[in-house]
Amino acid sequence: MDKPTRLVHGGREPRRQHGMVNPPVYHASTVIFPTVDALESAAANPFEGVYYGRFGTPIHFELEGLLAELEGGAGCVTTCSGLAAITVALMSVAQAGGHLLVADNIYLPTRKLCAGMLARLGMTTSFFDPRITPAALAELIRPETVALVVEAPGSLTFEMPDVPALAAVARAHDVAVIADNTWATPIGFPAFEHGVDISIQAATKYVVGHADAMLGAVTANESWYATVRRTAVEMGYCAGPDDVYLGLRGLRTLDVRLARHADNALRLCDWLAGRPEVEGLLYPPLPDDPGHAIWQRDFRAACGLFGVQLKPCSRQALTAMLDGLELFGMGFSWGGFESLVLPVNLTGARSATRWPHEGPLLRLHAGLESADDLIADLKAGFDRLASAT
Ligand SMILES: *Cc1c(COP(=O)(O)O)cnc(C)c1O
């Protein structure tokens, strides 16, 4: 069945739920076993069926099953945040003395995890230009390299690595491929068809989709799934059942929301491209974006998150623009129903490449509002910017 149909019908079984459309939420720590035999056999196979709250409840298994199916992985484990999902993925491949190859446009807390905790545990990390060629990547692989970590596109600067080409090099050297697939969501980029072993979702973003719950998911292929699930359990990471419910509910409308987010993003880009204050736009679905060919070839959907590179202006002019916006909330995270703006600070965010622009970089999230109203809000912002300069 097609993905829109699975989004609606997967992860629930009304006939087993008294006819109720949505599955119930169990709040559980203890699971009671009727006999010693039942308890011992559950303890021998804690990953099959219910065992203890931390190992998951039926609604966890519904969401995890549906996410794995949508993305094309063998299995999925949910976590309490997107960053916890990244931690699980990296700890699944970690070993003392191991080496990571990480794209320079990676989510900043991932970089901090590599430079912090993983470095203390004896891992080293090399960062590389996300637009690296496969041949140049091959040169960076060492005997102790355990994983390649990419994000397509990066969520601040939107460079698009060629995931299948880089993954092929990694595989040839027995290096695991980890992708943060939050931008594209499980329906926008079928990570496992493109050589990824472990795919991360900050489900907080588009899966939940309403800016009200923190949730992560790690999906893995046959070779990695058992290790990933064991790692999550060893670390004690688990998602709350109400948040998992919100993730499952968010999935029902994921593809219609994404279509509107992407449509609004294109409308905004089209308008912004004609503004004298704008130096460039960072959004792979745009035909003249450097990542467009890769996006066109490998992706099946876009989302509403993109970058706007402004021409240099004073801080006072920029704050006059941003402080007065009425529809664009200023803050972190994205993927909810509303539009957002973030003045991007790249301090400490790159080490292998240099961001070549001088002017301010804005990250916009096109929400589900009317594009005309969003454009009017931005236009008033540019008017304030001009009069403050
Ligand atoms: C937000 C985000 C995360 C982290 O998700 P949280 O749920 O906020 O911990 C990871 N990766 C990307 C690309 C993100 O945008």
The biggest sheet amounts to:
7 strands, mixed
Output the CATH homologous superfamily of the largest domain: Type I PLP-dependent aspartate aminotransferase-like (Major domain)
Bound molecules: pyridoxal-5'-phosphate
By secondary-structure content and strand pairing, the structural class works out as alpha/beta
Amount of beta strand:
5-15%
Provide mean pLDDT, rounded: 97
Number of domains: 2
Q: What is the CATH topology of the largest domain? A: Aspartate Aminotransferase, domain 2
| Large-scale geometry | globular
Number of strands: 12
Class of the largest domain, according to the CATH hierarchy? Answer: Alpha Beta
Helices and strands, in order, run as HHHEHEHEHEHEHEEHHHEHEHEEEH
Nearest-angstrom radius of gyration? Answer: 22 Å
Q: What is the CA–CA distance across the termini? A: 55 Å
- The poorly predicted ranges are none
How many helical elements?
Answer: 14
The strands making up the biggest β-sheet line up spatially as 1-7-6-5-4-2-3
CATH architecture classification name of the largest domain: 3-Layer(aba) Sandwich
Helical fraction equals 25-40%
GO molecular function: cysteine-S-conjugate beta-lyase activity
Protein name: Cystathionine beta-lyase
Pfam family, one: Cys_Met_Meta_PP
Organism: Spectribacter hydrogenoxidans
